[in-house]
Amino acid sequence: MKAAIVAALLSAAVLLTPPAAAAPCDLQLVTEQVLKRLNEIRAQGRTCGNQTMGPATPLRWQPALLDAASRYAAELSGRRQLSHTSLSGASLPQRLEAVRYSLRLAGENLASGPDSVDEVLNLWLDSPGHCQNLMGPDFTEVGLACDMRDTANAQPYWVMELGRPQLMRPVQANATVRGVPEGLLPTDGPAVR
Fold this sequence. Notes:
The protein is α/β, with parallel strands linked by helices. It is built from 6 helices and 8 strands.
């Protein structure tokens, strides 16, 4: 009798348990799909704040930029803070140098909160500085990563690294970095930097 009651309770528990939702940051970042989405956005052109951005050339996926984005997303998620400067004080050019990316031009978009690629892209497109980076016609390569630490109240941290490489590694790097204004936007929703 006890076994029948326990079995019935277990069956009821299984039936009452909602299906597991897709885990945030469970990117399954299929490179081709993400790149296709980014390039569809770039092909359309758009207005970023007060600046009209025409269609931009397609981006290529770049393993070194992906490596830099993955490392930095893990750091941001671990410290639960958005910043364009790492804990060690490294700037974007220094972080790209660490993964041996010889840059001519670089840009970085950061966000925390969105659960999907489409959500984070829409968040960046609604922010003039991030939109300008995403639509920047001089960028030719991209890496995008997300990380979420396994802690209570954790949220996804997203990093997009955009770049244009040097054709030959210069003796002394002269890099241009396109930054986004400091500060969190918006204050009551997902955060971007």
